[in-house]
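Backbone-to-sequence.
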């Protein structure tokens, strides 16, 4: 089983020709780790200022900002379905339950794998389509870039190349985990797909712990 975070910073796998953005970001991530050990804070700041392109943060941090954006959208009172092109759509399924004469609203995060990806990579996921009454929107690159020092073009290229790398691994029939920070893990085992959401994320959507335990079981 491979971890996506480790693979996208493996320079031997990220050829300059095939994944130029990942190559650049991975090189910079390794470089800054070295520089932090040998330079003072002021020298490091000067180096960052003089670099021809930004190198803070790395690929993992960019995807962390993507995850943060998805999470914020799903936690809205009236959330949209958030579509990550080339991956799938995250949305909230709501239902009502009566406990001890009281009505409770519950919210369950869902993930629907892109049909194109499923067909191309021959994957199977036990899920239903996004309900028609849920409005779907694409990720907002402006919001994603609002707290990281990268252009929208760089972020888009990073996401596209990461997903292309993801497809390559799947097509080679390797098991892999695609982690979305503070949301959960997209687990690929053979041709089976499962999205596992973190307990803390479920708790942020539902104030009743017993509901979360049911969702985790």
């Amino acid at each position: 089983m491979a971890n996506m975070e480790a693979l996208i910073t493996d320079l031997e796998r990220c050829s300059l020709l095939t994944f130029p953005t990942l190559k650049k970001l991975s090189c910079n991530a390794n470089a800054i780790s070295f520089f932090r050990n040998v330079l003072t804070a002021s020298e490091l700041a000067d180096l960052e200022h003089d670099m021809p392109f930004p190198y803070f943060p790395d690929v993992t941090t960019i995807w962390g900002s993507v995850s943060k954006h998805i999470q914020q959208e799903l936690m809205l009172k009236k959330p949209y379905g958030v579509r990550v092109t080339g991956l799938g759509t995250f949305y909230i399924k709501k239902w009502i339950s009566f406990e001890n004469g009281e009505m409770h609203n519950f919210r369950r995060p869902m993930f629907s794998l892109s049909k194109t990806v499923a067909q191309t990579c021959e994957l199977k996921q036990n899920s239903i389509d996004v309900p028609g009454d849920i409005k779907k929107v694409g990720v907002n690159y402006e919001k994603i870039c609002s707290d990281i020092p990268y252009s929208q073009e760089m972020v888009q290229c990073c996401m596209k190349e990461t997903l292309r790398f993801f497809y390559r691994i799947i097509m080679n029939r390797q098991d892999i985990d695609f982690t979305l920070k503070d949301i959960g893990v997209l687990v690929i085992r053979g041709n089976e797909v499962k999205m596992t959401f973190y307990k803390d994320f479920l708790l942020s959507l539902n104030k009743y712990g017993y509901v979360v335990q049911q969702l985790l079981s």
